[in-house]
TrEMBL record:
Name by which UniProt lists this protein: Alpha-glucoside transport system permease protein
Transmembrane segments: 21-42, 84-106, 115-140, 152-171, 192-215, 221-241, 253-276
Cellular component, GO, one term: plasma membrane
The organism's taxonomic lineage, starting at the top: Bacteria, Pseudomonadati, Pseudomonadota, Alphaproteobacteria, Hyphomicrobiales
Localization in the cell: Cell membrane
The entry's keywords: Cell membrane, Membrane, Transmembrane, Transmembrane helix, Transport
Length: 287
């Protein structure tokens, strides 16, 4: 019996070591492109022409001129302000409207709920890119093209079906008795939503908010199309992409601009990853 226990302990220990090794390999693979991006942004064009980015760890010749030039070209403050003006309202609106839609869908009668759930799946399958031209013509006709609300409408509208689908998977696991008890106590639907649904859905709402902020901040196509011709400064992704076309031979400056563009999303993702994982896991398991 003792021999079997020792063998079992050794097997479990070996399994943990293998798991840790796999996690370390995956982390190395995930961070390698980021390390290459940062290293390239700190090297001169002449050095990049004769050796790979990993050479910086052998012969560390670092320069910050690339960041100074990228900041001067991109206009970080104005570009980041535009990106925040797009991402923050889109994140708030998507999270709030998705929670309202998911709650309404869960409280519907089964036949209508199934019909709307099927419609959500259809909307998720629809590629947003096929609607760019029709919506661009509509926004031009109503005078909305080149303005921030055009991007809000597009990004919020095409993310709400996913948000409703995600939150609905969490809400259907909440016992019906909780809602019935609230009704007996005299709570109206708004009170139930604010006092019960929102607190219970906090993890999944946080995960959705993180996802939407990252999607909106990193979006290049939609701001490029719907903000074109406007007086507002382009978002940071559009400005960074402009370096690739107008100054494509200066790769270190492009790498520095890219680092500036991904810095905030990377900080958010790393610092809030526990809330993101908790929300996604709770929604997938309970749904």
């Amino acid at each position: 019996m003792t021999g079997h226990l020792k063998a079992l302990r050794q097997e479990l220990k070996g399994g943990r070591l293998a798991l840790h090794a796999i996690v370390l390999v995956l982390c190395a693979l995930w961070f390698t492109p980021i390390a290459g991006l940062v290293a390239s942004s700190l090297r001169s064009q002449s050095e990049m022409g004769i050796s790979g980015w990993w050479q910086i760890f052998v012969d560390p010749k670092v320069t910050l001129d690339n960041y100074a030039r990228a900041i001067g070209y991109v206009g970080v403050l104005n570009a980041a302000g535009t990106s925040l003006a797009l991402a923050i309202p889109v994140t708030i609106l998507t999270t709030l409207l998705s929670a309202i839609g998911a709650y309404a869908l869960v409280r519907l009668e089964p036949p209508r709920a199934r019909l709307f759930a099927a419609a959500l799946v259809v909307l998720l399958v629809l590629p947003p890119q096929v609607t760019v031209v029709p919506l661009l013509k509509l926004f031009v006709a109503i005078g909305l093209n080149g303005k921030v609300p055009a991007v809000w409408l597009y990004q919020v509208g095409f993310t709400i079906p996913y948000g409703v689908f995600l939150i609905r998977g969490f809400l259907i696991s909440i016992p019906e008795e909780i809602f019935e008890s609230a009704v007996i106590d005299g709570a109206n639907p708004l009170q139930i939503f604010t006092a019960i649904v929102i607190p219970l859905c906090a993890p999944i709402l946080a995960a959705l908010a993180i996802l939407q902020f990252l999607w909106s901040w990193n979006d290049l196509l939609i701001p490029l199309i719907f903000l074109g011709g406007g007086t507002l400064a382009p978002p940071i992704t559009v400005q960074a992409a402009g370096i690739a076309t107008s100054n494509g031979q200066d790769e270190p400056v492009l790498m520095a601009a890219t680092c500036l563009s991904v810095a905030l999303p990377l900080i958010i993702l790393v610092s809030l990853q526990r809330y993101f994982v908790r929300g996604i896991v709770s929604g997938s398991v309970k749904g």
